[in-house]
């Protein structure tokens, strides 16, 4: 068993909550001493009441004192327990917040390629649902302290009666520890195995309640199919979980039978002691209770010791996720060379293959972009256009080849500094359910001011300001419905907002990865004209399927099956009579057909 994750977790918890730990230990020790104190008071109370009823003693003051002590112990125990529960809950919230932050930081900084793997999603789902396991080592340790103190005090008491009572009380601990350890490990690996189906059920459930999918669910009549899919996945997981639980409960019944047998043996010894010595009724009752309490403490200790192994598996899984190398860690050996103002970007013999694919998506790509150029990249779906853009902006690391900025390899440049050269509008750009202001400023939020003049300038230049001024709360209007907003934008308005977002960032290179694909040809033409007009001093790279848009570029790169097969301006490519000319002819024919109908 690897206990390194356990040590890391303990170090994290101790560093975060020394005061909580000290208070918890103090309260635990006090609470641990209460059971044996209660037993002693009960023993003396029963003996005093028995003597009083038999008229052997008329000391009523002693009985009242013992009753007051018993009542006080009960109140003290309740106060201590509730204080401990409150402080535990408070600290759990702090730990949960810190761990969630770590998970979000890690998941938002790992290389983008991780998101192409379902195993990564499974891992993220597992650790997200098990952050509560982090406090388990401390809780187990505190529980062990409490149970050991209680156990030792009970053992001392039982030993004063007869040594064999300890033997009958403790012998059951071995099988209890063994059974709990086995099933703890089985629970973890079952959870590991069931994560993919659980994630499927969760995703399917989200489709039934999501606003984004609500239209298709109703139009296509998907309710029955999705409900059935969700039910089957969840049912399969439940059946597997219940199967393991059934085996565990059967084993627990056997253990309870063994516990009952050992308790019966202890009772037989008590009866023998009553015959052979003068044990009072109070001693008899307390001895019986002590044996039960001893067995409960031992069972709890065995269960906690077994839980350490199970908890370590969860912690190891958590730290394996945190140990994924993020972009900052991958940059540790970078020379971090500086470069003057951007003048060109060169791509040399670049190839890229997705980890799960045998065939490369990009192969032997080479071209150069000079400052101020407007480059169009066109090609059929699946030709590798978007993958090329992701390699170009540093989201994917090429399998082979290099990218240079002013002849400096980007491997020698800080990734953040390199990314700061770009503004990108993706095809599936995010429509944030935040305010209009946040939707625009989010492209450069770390450098934005509360009242940033760039915001209003970008909104005016993009054309979205006309619509925003008609809204009741202007730039503070919340968009979407999810966060309580009541304003939705049309597709064209969202496109204008996306332009404003790009203009607000105001970087040297603007990349447009088919953000206008949902627009009609005239709207797309207007979209690109706005970008080009307000970015005359910028370098612009855009992907488009439409030839009329590509004509706006200084140079057009034609991609097919992961390679650049043609390069030139519109007139040159038409004269070549190749792929571009073929695509142009096909689009003209389609346009004529639409006009004729």
What does this structure look like?
This protein is of the alpha/beta class and 597 residues long. The protein folds into two domains: 324 residues, ABC transporter transmembrane region fold, CATH 1.20.1560; 253 residues, P-loop containing nucleotide triphosphate hydrolases (Rossmann fold, 3-Layer(aba) Sandwich). It is built from 21 helices and ten strands. The strands form two sheets. Strands 6-7-8-3-9-10 form a six-stranded mixed sheet, with helices on both faces. Helix 6 packs parallel to helix 10, helix 15 crosses helix 17 and helix 17 packs parallel to helix 18. The N and C termini lie far apart (73 Å).
Keywords:
single chain; 597 residues; alpha/beta; ABC transporter transmembrane region fold; Rossmann fold; six-stranded mixed β-sheet; four-stranded antiparallel β-sheet
Question: How would the blueprint of this fold be written?
Answer:
Layout (H helix, E strand, L loop, with lengths): L3 H13 L1 H36 L6 H50 L8 H11 L7 H26 L2 H7 L2 H37 L1 H9 L3 H54 L4 H42 L4 H4 L13 E9 L9 E9 L3 E6 L5 H8 L7 E6 L2 E2 L5 H5 L2 E5 L9 H6 L11 H10 L2 H4 L22 H15 L3 E5 L7 H13 L5 E5 L3 H4 L4 E6 L2 E6 L1 H7 L2 H18 L1
Parallel strand pairs: 3-8, 3-9, 6-7, 7-8
Antiparallel strand pairs: 1-2, 1-4, 4-5, 9-10
Helix pairs in contact: 1-10, 2-3, 2-5, 2-10, 4-7, 4-10, 5-10, 6-9, 6-10, 7-9, 7-10, 9-10, 15-17, 17-18, 20-21
């Amino acid at each position: 068993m690897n206990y390194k994750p356990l040590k890391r977790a303990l170090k994290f918890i101790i560093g975060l909550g020394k005061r909580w730990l000290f208070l918890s230990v103090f309260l635990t020790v006090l609470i641990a001493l209460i059971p044996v104190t209660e037993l002693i008071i009960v023993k003396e109370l029963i003996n005093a009441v028995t003597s009083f009823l038999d008229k052997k003693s008329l000391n009523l003051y002693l009985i009242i004192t013992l009753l007051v002590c018993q009542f006080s112990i009960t109140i003290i125990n309740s106060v201590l327990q509730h204080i401990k529960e409150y402080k535990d809950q408070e600290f759990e919230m702090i730990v949960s917040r810190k761990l969630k932050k770590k998970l979000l930081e890690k998941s938002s900084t790992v290389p983008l390629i991780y998101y192409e793997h379902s195993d990564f999603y499974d891992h993220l789902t597992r650790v997200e649902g098990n952050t509560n396991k982090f406090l388990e080592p401390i809780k187990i340790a505190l529980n062990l302290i409490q149970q050991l103190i209680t156990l030792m005090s009970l053992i001392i008491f039982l030993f004063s009666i007869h040594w064999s009572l300890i033997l009958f009380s403790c012998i059951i601990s071995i099988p209890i520890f063994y059974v709990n350890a086995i099933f703890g490990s089985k629970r973890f690996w079952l959870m590991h195995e069931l994560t993919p189906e659980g994630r499927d059920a969760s995703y399917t459930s989200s489709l039934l309640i999501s606003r984004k999918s609500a239209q298709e669910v109703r139009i296509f009549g998907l309710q029955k199919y999705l409900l059935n899919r969700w039910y089957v996945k969840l049912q399969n997981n439940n059946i597997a979980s219940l199967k393991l639980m059934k085996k565990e409960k059967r084993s627990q019944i056997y253990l309870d039978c063994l516990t009952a047998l050992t308790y019966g043996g202890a009772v037989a010894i008590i009866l023998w002691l009553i015959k052979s010595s003068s044990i009072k009724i109070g001693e008899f009752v307390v001895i019986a209770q002590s044996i039960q309490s001893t067995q409960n403490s031992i069972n709890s200790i065995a269960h906690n010791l077994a839980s350490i192994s199970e908890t370590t598996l969860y912690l190891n899984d958590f730290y394996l996720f945190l140990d994924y190398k993020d972009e900052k860690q991958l940059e540790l050996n970078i020379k971090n060379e500086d470069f003057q103002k951007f003048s060109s970007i060169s791509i040399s013999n670049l190839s890229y293959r997705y980890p799960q694919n045998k065939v490369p998506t990009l192969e032997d790509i080479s071209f150069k972009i000079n400052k101020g150029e407007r480059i169009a990249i066109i090609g059929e779906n699946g030709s590798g256009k978007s993958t090329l853009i992701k390699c170009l902006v540093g989201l994917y690391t090429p399998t082979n080849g290099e990218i240079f900025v002013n002849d400096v390899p980007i491997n020698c440049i800080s990734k953040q500094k390199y990314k700061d050269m770009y503004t990108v509008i993706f095809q599936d750009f995010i429509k944030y359910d935040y305010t209009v202001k946040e939707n625009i400023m989010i492209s450069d939020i770390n450098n934005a001011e509360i009242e940033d003049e760039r915001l209003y300038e970008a909104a005016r230049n993009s054309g979205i300001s006309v619509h925003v001024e008609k809204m009741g709360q202007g730039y503070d209007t919340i968009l979407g419905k999810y966060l309580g907003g009541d304003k939705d934008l049309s597709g064209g308005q969202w496109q204008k907002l996306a332009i404003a977002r790009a203009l607000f960032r105001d970087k040297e290179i603007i990349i447009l990865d088919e953000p206008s694909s949902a627009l009609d040809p005239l709207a797309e033409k207007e979209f690109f004209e706005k970008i080009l007009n307000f970015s005359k001093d910028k370098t612009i790279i855009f992907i488009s399927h439409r030839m009329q848009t590509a004509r706006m570029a200084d140079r057009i790169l034609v991609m097919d099956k992961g390679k650049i097969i043609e390069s030139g301006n519109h007139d040159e490519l038409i004269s070549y009579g190749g792929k571009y000319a073929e695509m142009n002819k096909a689009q003209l024919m389609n346009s004529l057909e639409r006009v004729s109908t």
